[in-house]
Task: structure prediction
Amino acid sequence: QTVVTQEPSLTVSPGGTVTLTCASSTGAVTSGYSPNWFQQKPGQAPRALIYTTSNRHSWTPARFSGSLLGGKAALTLSGVQPEDEAEYYCLLYYGGAGVFGGGTKLTVL
Amino acid sequence: QVTLRESGPALVKPTQTLTLTCTFSGFALSTSTMCVTWIRQPPGKALEWLARIDWDDEKYYSTSLKTRLTISKDTSKNQVVLTMTNMDPVDTASYYCARIRRLQSGSYIDFWGLGTLVTVSS
Result:
């Protein structure tokens, strides 16, 4: 059973920078896993942020960026805003089937 | 404008089969690169990927649930149907459908439905 691991929780100050990571139990994450990132606020459906490692959707603010970092997929928020407080999920694809990470609860404090 | 809407029973009994329908607009599942996926989320827990069907009828299932899941499409109705057999209270969750684009560079979800809450209880 493939497991995708994220930090359970992170805290960042307004205006600060934070990096969330996404690791695979099968080894290093590469672009071949098509890393996707999503934001979910309480009571809402998830919203797509980043696709295929580093591409922003047209609605994704420029302060969100995706990359590969140390064998993991990474989501970096620069100049964090209070409204960025949310749960963040990564999704990796394994031969067409997807596996979500457990999510990172980001607190802006 | 792409929209997706999930529909199905709000309550099912243990051992019953759940049938959910995703009705979408703004794209055609017969068009190259278009796919639809199902995802669920138990209350207070993480997202779980369930299944996916592509424009060319390729199908993919969660490894842990594949014996219980069947996904199908009706392109004339713009619908994708997911069935899950032998429902259990642990299957209580919000069930979402979403659109996937499958490109040479990889696959990605862009649009989500609002989700539908399914409770499994006798």
User: Anything to note?
Assistant: The first strand of chain B starts at residue 3 and ends at 7.
